[in-house]
């Protein structure tokens, strides 16, 4: 689940996956780094919990939108590093366009009423 400072609210379907893909497009990362990146980029408005992150990563792996390899962290721990695939980049671009259109429509509905001619 993703939480804001004042309320707990679920994102629309696919939002977490889209944020994960965008984060991985910037650079490969392990799970904790993804959580930190999303939190920092959202100015701490979004906090991704492990119970939401890892199922989303498993869906992305299953759909071959990301790939994972085991690595060793700087603290000598085994970590699973995730990388976006070419299919993941294509899906991300489609999802971003769809989101932008949806956001534009919502903004029009919530915005000031227009004069009808």
UniProtKB/TrEMBL annotation:
Q: Note the Gene3D superfamilies from the entry.
A: Winged helix-like DNA-binding domain superfamily/Winged helix DNA-binding domain
Give one Pfam hit by family name: PadR
- Which residue intervals define the domain Transcription regulator PadR N-terminal in the entry? 20-93
Q: What is this protein called?
A: Transcriptional regulator
Which species does the entry assign this protein to?
A: Silvibacterium bohemicum
Q: What is the lineage of its organism?
A: Bacteria, Pseudomonadati, Acidobacteriota, Terriglobia, Terriglobales
């Amino acid at each position: 689940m993703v939480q804001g400072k004042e309320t707990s609210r679920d994102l629309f379907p696919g939002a977490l996956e889209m944020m994960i893909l965008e984060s991985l497009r910037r650079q490969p990362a392990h799970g904790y780094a993804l959580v930190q990146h999303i939190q920092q980029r959202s100015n701490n408005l979004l906090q991704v919990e492990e119970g939401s992150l890892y199922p989303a990563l498993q869906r992305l792996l299953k759909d071959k939108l990301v790939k994972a390899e085991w690595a060793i962290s700087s603290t000598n721990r085994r970590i699973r590093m995730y990388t976006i695939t070419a299919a993941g980049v294509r899906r991300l671009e489609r999802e971003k366009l769809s989101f932008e259109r949806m956001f534009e429509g919502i903004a029009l509905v919530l915005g000031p009423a227009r004069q009808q001619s």
